[in-house]
Amino acid sequence: MKDKHKNKLKLLLEILFVSTRLGFTSFGGPIAHLGYFHDEYIRRRKWMDEKSYADLVALCQFLPGPASSQVGIGIGVMRAGILGGIVSFIGFTLPSVIALIVFALLLNNYGFTDVGWIHGLKVVAVVVVAHAILGMAKNLTPDLQRKSIALGAMILTLLWQTAITQITVILFAGVVGYLLYNKQQIDNQSSKSTFPLSRRLGFICLGLFFGLLIVLPIIREATTLNWVAMFDSFYRSGSLVFGGGHVVLPLLEREFVPTGWLSKEEFLTGYGAAQAVPGPLFTFAAYIGAVINGWKGGLLATVAIFLPAFLLILGTLPFWDTLRRNRKIKGSLMGVNAAVVGILIAALYHPIWTSSILTPLDFVLAAILFSMLVYWKLPPWIIVVTGAIGGFLFSYL
């Protein structure tokens, strides 16, 4: 028994070490994160086989929330149970959470929202998202039908900007994908995955997910506590966004800027800073929370926005093998993944492009950074540093 506990502790420390290293070095957004995960967890350490990893990625793309964080949690759960998932999440997320909380506290104390290097970081965001879309489109929209789904999703997302647009588009794309691809051949030879989670736990987690989504707004209306209102706003944003971190920006903007929790300048400044740190873009919530209520607000925001992702991945993993062998689900996933590409294209235009590319100089800087990333294959951290320096220098022209 003692050896068993010792081995479990060793396993958890290994997960913490590897995920923390990824948390410090994973620049470039969710698609880049999945590449880092594949290289570290699959290719080097062989914690999962290729097919299981691909299916886990597809599942997390289907679920609302930060896809790359959910993949990391899923890998940790498969490796060492729920504690493994928690440790994997902490390691991958904590570096950027700390950095953005510190940035928000400095901003509150000194204020530097108009400096050129911040605008340079916004231009970096354009380049990173554009590069991510190219990679996703190649893999997720290979045929005319899925290209058409992506186009329709982009049009609806841009022209019908409401709180329910994204989830409506995703659901509609799932139906279209089912109708088009429900006869898709399923690879029944793929390895059967086992998880240290019971279906009972899965049902409990899914029940908590939907229960909090319903109960939190009621509690918010019945009380005047600011922290309850904050928790509800972040939890709802984390629950209703599909397609990863960039797509959460419009939801967070609508929750916090019109209500006066923070100014548009503070929001855009934090978004620019979020591009400069590694790890998931959902940690942008830590910045918003810290601007509103210091480091405690930052931690509260982080827990609230990531909690839905935790509940959903723990709730669906016990049913994963059944889901991935179902033709109807597989077809729906193909439609959903195509729609995610369209949603990201819409997000690239608004708010990312419209708040970043304001002059010909901005476009020149974006073109240079895009070439460095895509054609010269330079590491993402070099792109971030170059963008900040370029924005600083261009501010004097």
How would you describe the overall organization of this protein?
The chain has one domain (2-184, 198-394). The chain has helices at 2-25, 29-44, 50-62, 67-110, 116-140, 144-159, 165-181, 199-222, 226-240, 245-256, 264-276, 284-316, 320-324, 327-356, 360-374, 380-394. With 397 residues, the protein is mostly helical. The longest helix has 44 residues, at 67-110.
- The general outline is globular
Overall pLDDT, averaged?
A: 83
Q: What is the N-to-C succession of helices and strands?
A: HHHHHHHHHHHHHHHH
Structural class: mainly alpha
Question: Percent of residues in beta strands?
Answer: under 5%
Separate helix tally: 16
Please give the radius of gyration in angstroms: 21 Å
How is the biggest beta sheet arranged?
Answer: none
Helix content range of the residues, please?
Answer: over 70%
How far apart lie the N and C ends?
A: 68 Å
Instruction: Count the domains.
Output: 1
Total number of beta strands:
0
Poorly predicted regions: none
Task: Give a concise summary.
The protein has 397 residues and is mostly helical. It has helices at 2-25, 29-44, 50-62, 67-110, 116-140, 144-159, 165-181, 199-222, 226-240, 245-256, 264-276, 284-316, 320-324, 327-356, 360-374, 380-394.
Give the topology.
Blueprint: H1 2-25, H2 29-44, H3 50-62, H4 67-110, H5 116-140, H6 144-159, H7 165-181, H8 199-222, H9 226-240, H10 245-256, H11 264-276, H12 284-316, H13 320-324, H14 327-356, H15 360-374, H16 380-394
Helix pairs in contact: 1-4, 2-4, 2-5, 3-4, 3-14, 4-12, 5-11, 5-14, 5-15, 5-16, 6-7, 6-14, 7-14, 8-9, 8-12, 9-10, 9-12, 10-14, 11-12, 15-16
